[in-house]
Amino acid sequence: MRKFEKISLKQFKKDIGNNQDLYNNYKLPIRKTKSSGGYDLFSLLDYELKPKDSIIIPTGVKCSMQADEILMIVIRSSLGFKHGIKLANQVGIIDADYYNNEDNDGHIFIKIENTSDKMFSIKVGDAIAQGLFIKYGVVANEEEIKEERKGGIGSTGK
User: Fold this and answer.
1) Which of 26, 45, 94, 101 could join 71 via S-S bond, C-beta 3.0 to 4.6 A?
2) pTM (2 decimals)?
3) CA 47 from centre of chain
């Protein structure tokens, strides 16, 4: 079953800070219209992003999904078109086994870059990216994979 959840309070304090009010009140991703494919992910804090600079934004969100699905993270179209904002990795891929991993509880982070020559402001509650659930297939002659994810971001490349 697909489901967005808040990360644990312990992980929130580690990654974002000891702000119980913020933890209790931030929004989980939502679709804004009935035909939207993507779930908007929101900023928990205010940021000022200088021209040609980048920033890593914690979302406070983790996501469970079916084993044969990914959550693809892309920048909101308007941020790219109007403000020159892009994801540092172009497209983020959240695997099903990233959820509840031992390194970071499955906390989804978004790294954005400001490719423009103007300062870009992000306010609490601004939608900064969107997540789309996508089913994927595997080849018929694939050998059984026994390796299980043990960590967070970049852990499968070790």
Assistant:
1) 94
2) 0.89
3) 17
Signed CA dihedral, 12, 121, 116, 73: sign only = positive
Dist. CA 18–CA 11, nearest whole Å = 10
Q: Domain limits of the chain? A: 3-137
Strand locations in the chain, DSSP E?
A: 3-6, 39-42, 47-49, 54-58, 61-64, 69-75, 85-87, 92-95, 109-114, 120-122, 127-135
Report d(CA 31, CA 142) in Å as an integer: 35
* Residue 36: both structure tokens together: 């939207």
Q: Which CATH code is given to the segment(s) 3-137? A: 2.70.40.10
Distance CA 152, CA 146 (A): 18
Predicted confidence (pLDDT) per residue in 50-86, tens digit: 999 999 999 999 999 999 999 999 999 999 999 999 9
What is the reported pLDDT for 152?
62
- Would you state the pLDDT for residue 131? 98
